[in-house]
Amino acid sequence: MTLALVILVIAAVVTAVFWFIPKKNGPILTMYSGLYLLVLYAPILILPIFAFNDNKVVTFPLKGFTTQWFAEMWADPNLRIALGNSLIIALSTATLATILGIFAARASVRYGFPGKGAALGLIMLPLVLPEMIVAMALLVVLLSIGVPLSIFTIIMGHVLICMPFAVAILTSAFQSLDRSLEEAALDLGETQISTFRLITLPLVMPGILASFLITFTISIDEFIISNFLGSGKPVLSVYIFGQFRFPAKVPSMLALGTLLVAFSICLLAIAEYFRRRGIAKAGGNASGGFL
Fold first, then answer.
1. What gap in Å lies between CA 99 and CA 94, rounded to an integer?
2. Does the pLDDT at position 92 exceed 90?
3. What span, in angstroms and rounded, lies between the C-alpha atoms of 136 and 166?
4. CA-CA distance, 236 to 144, in Å (whole number)?
5. Helix, strand or coil for residue 133?
6. 32/26 Cα distance (integer angstroms)
7. Domain spanning 71-281: which superfamily?
8. Residue 250 near residue 57, CB atoms below 8 Å
9. Number of DSSP helices (H) and strands (E) in the chain, helices first
10. At residue 88, does pLDDT exceed 70?
């Protein structure tokens, strides 16, 4: 804990110092950025190393190469149950968050109404609130109104957490859309619904796909909401946390973590591809990230 705090303080101080370095010192900034990312993601790089290490103890030196931890991981029936529940939750969350995000993003970009700023602020609020506080508040509310904890309550909590990301991505997609295309369709006799279905929806479809993929990834990785609102339901993130109580299970969990990291990276790369494609298709600038 102390070492992590020291590293964060050093990183913060060095960042503040480099803030005042002139732009002409680009190579120095590039080297520092690379070093910073290495320190930040080094723990993730360790995952595949020990996932293929022929030793039940996670320690150096390495003993040899093996794939037995992947076979042991998949042989656990509880894992398959937890994975199935997580896929149901993630698909449901991604679908609901994306649909609601379309409505919110469309309204925020195209229309003005009383309380618009407050409404958008409330939608984006879970992005900055501590998830522990959100989970406890949801748990108290659900128990007070008599809603039993289940997979459905987990989906409700995940939709709340994922909505800001969906709205941010879809707002960018709608903002990059040329409004004259919709106006031309209306002038040619199309209705509001047919214009949205035939013109708007195809143009923002890359943003919709990006929103679906990013919310799916966030949902399948979410632990705090699942732990509070699941009432012991086998969910992948909660299952992984429970398995770390047993030292013999750690290597197989590292193997599972390796697969999840690779899966998440692939989904995020696909989502970013569709996001940039949608913005470029609408004639906008496709640089930058999701937010």
1. 8
2. yes
3. 23
4. 27
5. helix
6. 10
7. MetI-like (1.10.3720.10)
8. no
9. 13, 0
10. yes
CA 32 – CA 23 distance, rounded (Å): 13
At position 82, the amino acid (one-letter code) is A
Residue with tokens 């989904």: 267
Would you state the pLDDT for residue 49?
80
Averaged pLDDT for residues 256-283? 74
Peptide bond preceding 61 in cis form (omega within 30 of 0): yes
pTM score > 0.90 for this model?
no
**pLDDT tens digits for range 127-172:** 888 888 888 888 888 888 888 888 888 999 999 999 999 998 888 8
Please give the C-alpha separations between residue 210 and each of 106, 108, 215, in angstroms, as whole numbers. Answer: 16, 19, 9
Chain CA centroid to CA 61, Å: 34
Task: Determine contact, residues 55/272, Cβ cutoff 8 Å.
Answer: no
CB of 271 closer than 8 Å to CB of 213: yes
DSSP 53: B
Token pair for residue 230? 């699941």
Condensed to tens digits (0 to 9), the pLDDT of residues 216-254 reads: 888 988 888 888 887 777 888 888 888 777 777 777 888
Q: Parse the chain into domains and list their residue ranges.
A: 2-51, 71-281
Q: Token digits for 276?
A: 């940039």
Q: Between vectors from CA 246 to CA 242 and to CA 250, what angle results, nearest 5°? A: 85
- Which tokens in the block code for residue 55? 């030793």
Token pair of 121 as six digits: 């602020």
**Contact of 208 with 170, CB cutoff 8 Å:** yes
